[in-house]
Automatic annotation (TrEMBL):
Residues 171-192 are annotated as: Disordered. It comes from Hartmannibacter diazotrophicus. Residues 7-166 form the Thioredoxin domain. This is Thioredoxin domain-containing protein. GO terms for molecular function: antioxidant activity; oxidoreductase activity. Coiled coil: none annotated. It holds the Pfam family AhpC-TSA.
Length: 192
C-alpha cells in the first residue's frame, strides 16, 4: 500500500524548482504556457525506456509547442549525470531538470522504485510520471506508471493532449493514455 500522497485534479501542485542542464534553474511557477505545462518525471539516465521517450519528445517538441504546451523533463539525477545524458543523446531542445529530492518526488506522488534502482552515483530512481499542469498551477491530470513495463508512446501523449484540447481544458477525463502493453499506437496485427 502506498503512503505517498499526490495532487488531485483541480488542486494546486507542489512547488517545483530544479536545476537545468545548460541553465540556472527552472520554476514551475514561472511558466506561462497557452494551455498547459507538461512535466515529465523520468527515471534517470540509467533507464533506457525513459531515455527513448525523452529522445522522441525532444525530436517532436515543436508539436507540443504548437498545441500551446510547455514541456520539461525532470529526474533525481545529479547535475553531472543529467548533463552527460543530454549531451550523449543530443537532447538540445527539451528542457532537462535535475536534482529532484526524494521528498519533492513523493509530494508529486512519485515513489522510489526500491533498492537496486539507483544509478552509478547511488541516486534514487522514481516512478515515471506525466503531469499536465494548468497555467494557474493546478493539476489537470496525471499519469504515474507504478509497475514495470513499457512507457506510453509520445504519439499516445499527443493524442491525449488533442482530446483534452478538443473536449475542453476543464475535463481531466479527456487525457487518457493507453496501457503501455496495449498501446494503440502499436502496428495492428495482420489479419488471419
Amino acid at each position: 500500500m502506498s503512503l505517498t500522497s499526490h495532487p488531485k485534479p483541480g488542486q494546486p501542485v507542489p512547488a517545483l524548482q530544479v536545476g537545468m542542464v545548460g541553465g540556472c534553474c527552472w520554476r514551475l511557477s514561472d511558466q506561462k504556457p497557452q494551455h498547459f505545462t507538461l512535466v515529465i518525471a523520468y527515471r534517470g539516465g540509467q533507464c533506457p525506456d525513459s531515455i527513448s521517450f525523452l529522445q522522441d519528445v525532444d525530436s517532436r517538441l515543436g508539436e507540443f509547442r504548437r498545441r500551446g504546451i510547455a514541456v520539461v523533463a525532470i529526474s533525481a539525477d545529479p547535475r553531472q549525470c543529467a548533463e552527460s545524458t543530454a549531451s550523449e543523446l543530443g537532447l538540445d531542445r527539451l528542457p532537462i531538470g535535475y536534482g529532484v529530492s526524494p521528498d519533492r518526488a513523493m509530494a508529486w506522488g512519485l515513489e522510489p522504485l526500491g533498492k537496486g534502482h539507483t544509478d552509478k552515483t547511488g541516486c534514487a530512481a522514481f516512478n515515471f510520471g506525466i503531469f499536465l499542469v494548468r497555467p494557474d498551477g493546478t493539476l489537470h491530470t496525471s499519469y504515474i506508471q507504478s509497475k514495470p513495463g513499457r512507457l506510453p508512446t509520445v504519439n499516445s501523449v499527443l493524442k491525449a493532449l488533442d482530446r483534452t484540447l478538443e473536449r475542453g481544458l476543464d475535463d481531466p477525463s479527456a487525457f487518457v493514455l493507453p496501457e503501455a502493453d496495449n498501446d494503440q499506437d502499436a502496428p495492428p496485427s495482420p489479419a488471419p
